[in-house]
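REVIEWER CHECKLIST
Item 1: Sequence provided? yes
Item 2: Single chain? yes
Item 3: Sequence as submitted:
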Amino acid sequence: MTLGTLEDSILELFDADGIWLDANDDFAESTASRLIWQAPGTGTYYVQVASFRTGTGTYTLTIAIAL
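Item 4: Structure as written out by the authors:
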């Protein structure tokens, strides 16, 4: 995740049934979030982006698939 005007992000990952799988608040020394997660198989997964605070802002979310 690359932060724009959003100051502090939280990423959460859910499966198709809405079951929580993983999350990250701050990565390394940044307030930007990062998840490295290996799917157990094919399926539908959802990423939720939120602000650590109550603010709003812009960000860029990049999802990479390694085969």
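Item 5: Key structural point noted by reviewer: The chain has a mean pLDDT of 90.
Item 6: Recommendation: ____
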